[in-house]
Specification:
Number of domains: 4
Number of helices: 17
Number of strands: 18
Largest sheet: 8 strands, antiparallel
Structural class: alpha+beta
Shape: globular
Helix content: 25-40%
CATH topology of the largest domain: Alpha-Beta Plaits
CATH class of the largest domain: Alpha Beta
Radius of gyration: 23 Å
């Protein structure tokens, strides 16, 4: 807890409404144990963020920027020391600036994705990053969020056209990085340091993003591949046949689907013959309305699947067609179904696409030999190489630590995978960062952070209480 002097000073900067009286919601992450905040400051403007950050820098106070607190790596909550201030950006929701002709939107960092898309809907536009949570736009930029439609639309880096950031120096310096221009080589593109920087270099307070026309046609199917080795050929075939209409290609293990269906009584089991070992949710979209004489998107999808079923080397064993909404409901229920079935060890891994099947086969063999009491319940974004490699099993700290070490060693050392595909950085992956991130990269990251005002000799994802700035900002 901060002493009275600091609390009085912070209240003078943000007003009585800017200090949270009940810190519980800001201390509790979406996953992992609750931390202890020294205090919670909730500035409502960029000027107030600047004042708080500058004060913390001058006084040597550690702080953790927090968006919507939906992140999964302990990147937006304080540790258990009670020495870290939470800098919540949830009040940075100034009126959105939507330019429909330019297809851009400028929003405060605390604005939620759902609020932005609701404001864009009357214009027929949306920000097409599909997630299982409702994050803040500042957190999405700071963690370079991807999501289920990365295949078609890319990640936040692809969409961020401009940022406003506050640097962690004694002045709380405010930088405006581009003005929403799609082409701007007038200076070094510093904003790219802050997109995916997880707050290491400063606090994002405003974001300008490119937005897209909403699809006018959508079709989806559940594909059952011949076997796991057929998943990549199936993806390549759909990319060749559907081109830019292919929006999503989401892999789901039978174990994950079974748990989701069991947990959600309203979630119908679409598989009449029983849940398969593996299935893929494929989605096609078009930005135009149906045209006379043109096959509907549902017909197009069925035709592609039919041709793949008839091939001599058919990668497809079966295909189920139906409600797009119901199919996505199954996909979005997977995480909740796993949490309801027992303690989960989650990995956010990213591979070259060609390595996905081989990693899964080797990991499955390792689990059977060394960790038979843990069930593999994976799913992921096959088209971009991302996999949420989830394991459900006993809540034994030593076993879980050994299992985490074994999986990460196989993935990173064995396949040159990333231990953080899209969730960003935080205390939950501190050990992996220390071990697998090259020392030179860590050192240069620290040097860049020092330039922006941290003045710390080393960058750690979870800062010590003595550090003036926590290298975290999460969704």
């Amino acid at each position: 807890m901060l002493d009275a002097r600091h609390l009085t000073a912070l209240e003078a900067l943000v007003g009585p409404a800017g200090l949270a009286s009940d810190p519980a919601a800001y201390e509790t992450p979406a996953r992992y144990a609750r931390g202890v905040a020294a205090a919670v400051a909730r500035p409502a403007t960029t000027a107030e963020v600047s004042a708080v950050v500058g004060y913390c820098a001058r006084e040597g106070l550690a702080f953790v920027p927090q968006g919507a607190n939906t992140g999964l790596v302990e990147g937006s909550t304080p540790d258990a020391s009670g020495q870290q201030l939470v800098l919540s950006l949830d009040r940075l929701t100034a009126p959105m600036e939507i330019d429909a002709a330019d297809r851009t939107a400028t929003v405060g960092a605390g604005a939620r994705l759902s609020a932005l898309n609701a404001a864009l809907e009357p214009h027929g536009l949306f920000l097409p990053i599909d997630l299982g949570a409702d994050p803040s736009l500042g957190g999405m930029a700071a963690t370079n969020t991807g999501g289920a439609r990365f295949l078609r639309y890319g990640d936040m880096r692809r969409h961020v056209l401009g940022l406003e950031v506050v640097l962690p120096d004694a002045h709380g310096t405010v930088l405006t990085l581009s003005h929403g221009l799609r082409k701007d080589n007038a200076a070094i593109a510093l904003r790219q340091l802050f997109v995916g920087g997880c707050g290491a270099f400063g606090v994002i307070t405003k974001v300008t993003v490119e937005v897209h026309h909403r699809p006018r046609q959508t079709a989806a199917a559940l594909l059952i591949p011949r076997d796991l080795d057929a998943v990549l050929p199936l993806l390549c075939a759909f990319e060749a046949e559907a081109g830019t209409m292919l929006t999503a290609f989401e892999g789901m293990s039978g174990a994950a689907m079974t748990r989701a269906i069991a947990h959600a009584p309203t979630l119908a089991n679409p598989f009449a013959g029983g849940v398969p070992d593996y299935a893929v949710l494929v989605e096609l979209t078009r930005s135009w309305a149906p045209r006379d004489g043109e096959a509907s998107l549902d017909e197009t999808l069925q035709q592609i699947a039919g041709r793949l079923l008839e091939r001599d080397d058919a990668p497809l064993a079966d295909a189920l067609f139906g409600s797009t909404t119901k199919m996505w409901a199954l996909r979005h229920s997977l995480s909740e179904g796993l949490r309801a079935s027992g303690p989960v060890i989650g990995f956010d891994l990213s591979f070259r696409r060609r390595d996905l099947a081989r990693f899964r086969a080797e990991a499955t063999a390792m689990l059977a030999a060394d960790f038979p009491d843990y069930a593999l319940c994976d799913f992921g974004h096959i088209a971009d190489g991302g996999v949420h490699f989830n394991l459900v099993g006993p809540d034994d700290a030593d076993r879980r630590a050994a299992l985490r070490e074994a999986v990460l060693t196989l993935a990173v050392d064995g396949f040159s995978a990333s231990f953080s595909g899209e969730h960003g950085l935080g205390r939950a992956v501190q050990t992996a960062y220390d071990r697998f991130t090259p020392r030179a990269v860590q050192d240069y990251s620290a040097a860049v952070a020092a330039v922006f005002g941290r003045g710390s000799a080393s960058v750690r994802l979870a800062s010590a209480a003595s550090s003036p700035f926590s290298v975290q900002e999460s969704r």
